[in-house]
Design a protein that fits this description.
- This protein is mainly α and 450 residues long.
- The chain is built from 17 helices and 8 strands.
- A two-stranded antiparallel sheet has the order 1-2. The chain has a two-stranded antiparallel sheet with strand order 3-4. Strands 5-6 form a two-stranded parallel ribbon.
Length: 450
């Protein structure tokens, strides 16, 4: 029987291909993080109170230098026979450092190794997502400020409802998108715990200092229970995908509004032509393909979330190989969400309004609620005013959209938008993400010096 040699033994080639799956491609994204986790682990091993030491401090420094070279090597590959990034890095270090390279896996399993790689990768990506959420929200707030009190028909059930404004529309979407930072932050906190040292989920008979490796890697704390640390694999990725799914749902609603309001029947907004595509047969067409794909990609992320939760729901405790498939799910979800945030920010920045079309959308019935409330302010019971206005809509033909917009001065209404508050909130979120990113990069530089 033909077999393929791997670092862990001989295996049937078909079995190798089936079990390795997409890891040689996906694990390229984990090379830096695997090197970082290993650098922290060997540092801790060199400090472990055993005699003789598993790894000396000088040896740990040599390993860290070799890891830094791997992390910065653009030609470094994960081959199928390596199985994954962990074995690829270990093979490189063994080739370069001999027996010292064979020591780096002491006290570890690939279970806690991949878990820490994934958490480091997610932490870095989430900080990027938060910054991109701020970029899109800032673009929407700027769009709203530029066209603050331009009247826009507010709609319910897609039917004309009440006077609104471009400012309310834009900042409403901005606020809904900014609110998704709470879900992303929850995913960040779940992710910000270190599983390293849990090994295969049952610990090892060595005096590992798990707090030390957690601190070296910049985690908030270690995952305490070794069995729980093993089971947290997959749950972490599912929590991330849940946050991304809710974010994408908010982005999809923005995209749908932009599609509707740029239709000729509305013509409120003009999409930048550089972000539209033409037709192979109709010369006049400029299609909102990008925005349509936002809807499609939202469905994909919702599917990825469902796939991750479905993968976990009947899994027994401890590590199971099913968890390998969570890697591709969360990586694809991150890629889709980040690309969507970036493209929508560009589209909003390039979007224009047609003020004449916006004003033309006002019909008498749009002012009905405002007119009824004016009667209430004069002492008429609400229901009496409601019926009187409904029965005489023709009296509203001279209503002024600008006056209606100016009349709503309470918090968050057409004349009560706090742009400075939005901008301050965005700046605060940016600063927090930037500070955490800088601290994280400092950890990388300390463990993997250039």
């Amino acid at each position: 029987m033909k077999t393929e040699k791997t670092i862990t033994g001989e295996v049937d080639p078909d079995v190798l291909a089936y079990t390795v799956g997409d890891d040689p491609v996906l694990d390229r994204s984990l090379v830096l993080w695997d090197c970082l986790g290993t650098a922290a682990h060997v540092t801790m091993l060199s400090e472990m109170p055993v005699d003789p030491p598993v790894v000396t401090k000088d040896e740990a420094a040599r390993v860290r230098a070799a890891l830094a070279a791997v992390a910065r090597d653009p030609s470094f590959e994960v081959r199928e026979q390596d199985q994954d990034v962990h074995m690829a890095v270990e093979t490189r270090l063994t080739d370069e450092l001999g027996d010292l390279g064979r020591k780096i896996h002491t006290g570890r399993s690939r279970n806690d190794q991949v878990a820490v790689d994934v958490r480091l990768h997610i932490k870095d990506e989430l900080l990027g997502v938060e910054g991109e959420v701020c970029d899109l929200a800032a673009a929407l707030v700027a769009f709203g400020r530029a066209h603050d009190r331009v009247p826009l028909v507010g709609r319910t059930h897609l039917q004309p409802a009440m006077p609104s404004s471009v400012g309310v529309w834009a900042t409403g979407h901005a606020e809904m998108i900014l609110d998704q930072l709470a879900n992303l932050e929850a995913a960040y906190k779940i992710n910000d715990m270190c599983p390293l040292g849990s090994a295969a989920g049952y610990g090892v008979p060595l005096p590992l200092d798990r707090q030390r490796t957690s601190d070296l890697l910049g985690f908030a704390r270690p995952l305490h229970n070794v069995f729980g640390a093993s089971m947290a694999r997959g749950e972490d990725e599912a929590a991330l995908l849940s946050a991304l799914a809710q974010l994408m749902a908010a982005l999809s609603r923005l995209a749908e509004d932009m599609i509707l309001f740029s239709m000729p029947e509305f013509a409120y907004f003009k999409l930048p032509r550089a972000y539209c595509t033409g037709s192979s047969i109709m010369p006049q067409k400029y299609n909102p393909d990008v925005l349509e794909l936002v809807r499609s990609k939202t469905a994909q992320v919702l599917g990825l979330q469902t796939a991750a939760l479905s993968l976990l729901h009947a899994m027994p405790g401890g590590y199971n190989r099913d968890l390998q498939d969570c890697k591709g799910l969360y990586m694809k979800g991150l890629s889709i969400a980040r690309a969507t945030l970036r493209i929508l920010a560009k589209m909003v920045q390039g979007m224009e309004i047609d003020e004449a079309a916006l004003r033309a959308g006002f019909i008498p019935g749009v002012f009905a609620t405002d007119a009824a409330l004016r009667q209430v302010a004069a002492g008429v019971p609400w229901r009496t005013a409601y019926h009187d206005v409904r029965d005489h809509l023709e009296r509203l033909s001279t209503e002024d959209p600008d006056a209606a917009v100016a009349a709503k001065t309470h918090m968050g209404a057409t004349a009560g938008l706090d742009y400075e508050g939005y901008e301050a909130r965005i700046a605060s979120c940016r600063a927090a993400a930037s500070a955490r990113s800088e601290a994280f990069q400092a950890r990388i530089s300390e463990l993997l010096p250039s």
